[in-house]
Amino acid sequence: MKLLSFIQDAMPLRLKEVHMVKQPFIFNMVWAIFKPFIREKLKSRIFFHGSKMSTLHKHMDPSHLPADYGGVLPKIDYSGKDWMAGVEDYVEFIKMLNSFGLRKKSA
């Protein structure tokens, strides 16, 4: 709910479209839970494609997509494991960013 609130009310950019591709089956259940809390404007900008890349291509030209999504760019060759090493390089910076905000009152 915090993420949804941030996206709808506080994110300092405007989402024109959100495309979900190759979403797992369980995502449909999660979507059903959150859907009532999403404003119509944002709801109308969210598109679900599953494994049908032809529907994605109606919004994005294949020349801008990797082969994984029916595009002409090289296939994606990294995983979450590859991302973790990059994140670990910025742990201290992330801690610093997380320190901003209101201070909690002492009891």
UniProtKB/TrEMBL annotation:
Highest taxon in the source lineage: Eukaryota
Domain CRAL-TRIO, residue spans: 1-77
Pfam families: CRAL_TRIO
Transmembrane segments: none
Classification via PANTHER family: ALPHA-TOCOPHEROL TRANSFER PROTEIN-RELATED, MIP26555P1
Protein name, entry field: CRAL-TRIO domain-containing protein
Organism of origin: Molorchus minor
